[in-house]
Amino acid sequence: MSDYRDPAVIITVAGLSCAAITAFLGFFQAPLVNPDSWNAPEAYRILYWHVPFAWSSFLSFTILFAGAVSWYAKRSERGWSMVVIGSELGLLFGSGVIISGPIWGSAEWGVPWDWGDVRLNTYALLTLVALFLVMSLRSQPDGEETRDTLAAVGLFGFILVPITAAATTIWRNRHPGVIFRESEETGEVPVDPEILQVMVFGTFSFMILFIGLVLLNYSIYNLRAELESLNREIDKEMTN
Amino acid sequence: MTGEIAALVTYALLSAILGYYSFSRISALLELKRKIGDKTSTVAEE
After folding, report:
1. Which terminus of chain B, N or C, has fewer Cβ atoms within 10 Å?
2. Does the residue B24 lie in any domain?
3. Which of B14, B33, B46 to mutate to test the interface with A (most CBs of A within 10 A)?
4. Model ipTM value
5. Model-level pTM?
């Protein structure tokens, strides 16, 4: 029972609860957007999770990148654990974005995907890199060579993060731009304050969830290593 | 698909993914702790 009081479990459950509250507020508290400016004003509620999912995925890819650099520079076990955790969370949050984006696109644009939009395509590629890493981590035997190869894939995959982020403003085609930026004409954020509040609460919720999942995965990684070491110790005792 | 249905479908799918992943990780953590507890007592007995 005391295992449930593990900080990682508590933070993860708190993050999940806050994310659920965000969804509730998004549906029942936040006002509708201007129906004249949006084709499907009700579908905009998807963005309360879509945007924090995207930010969490970028944080995951940053962890993956930092881990890959650490692995190459110091052969650090902690660095490798960051590669493993970053890939898994990158796939989780990236998949959420890839699922929610096209559903919103179908309602708002009338098409789920635009192959001419740089941001959509670089983001999909980024999620595919995470998928490749997770599948490889599960299917390949662990060793220095495997780690070197996968860390290299992670490093090159990270190049897509700034390209995807910049594409929001530079090569924007269909995907909306940054919504929290102040308007150059009025100097105000062009979003209803109540919508902004729910959006900020959503971001805060997903940060808690993200921290919880990182701690949870890090504990699992370390406990697996501890279990392997105990198994080796028992095997050694048995043979003696 | 209307906007409201699109939003409901999205939240249902994303909740399932987030919930499944988070709780599978929590149960993996608890299972590992249990196994380590068993092994540690085995080592101590030996």
Report:
1. C
2. yes
3. B14
4. 0.91
5. 0.88
